Amino acid sequence: MIRSYAAGFIFTTSLPPTVVSGALAAVTILSGPEGRALRAKHQEVVSYLRSLLIEKGLPVEHCPSHIIPIHVGDPLLGTKISDELIRNYGHYVQAINYPTVPRGQEKLRIAPTPQHTRPMMDKFVEDLLMVWKELEMPLGNTTCPEQCTFCKKPLLFKALEARESCKPSCDKPYCPQLAKCF
Question: The CATH number of the domain where 171 resides is what?
């Protein structure tokens, strides 16, 4: 017992050969043509799902990765949406709460994969909207004032870089452009 928790012991264990072999196989696949095809498919899936969520009026926040955050703003509601989606519809969506995000910035974390199909994503959005409406969460136009560059052109997401600095130009709560600044 003491040996397992001793500081010097914990970081001296090596990875099992099967884990190393699996990681090596994954790197081999990802660095070849199959990996390039998977990345292209993944970007297509993310773009489609993000556009669909925005089109339906959900408060999608800007994120430079494949993860699509949807602003909820309440830890109880976020957890309730997450629970309802898995229990009643079979969709796993992670609720992200404090301390991972500041209070008031609670969100759902959607992580599509290259294996998701359009019918699967359409069904997911339909089910999410059902739960969203049952909980009387606001839907609607998520565009911001004229000066907000992201909201006016959400399909230009690909052109935005995570390292791009920004100055908040919109005072709309939960503006995707503002979320990018934090």
Answer: 3.90.1150.10
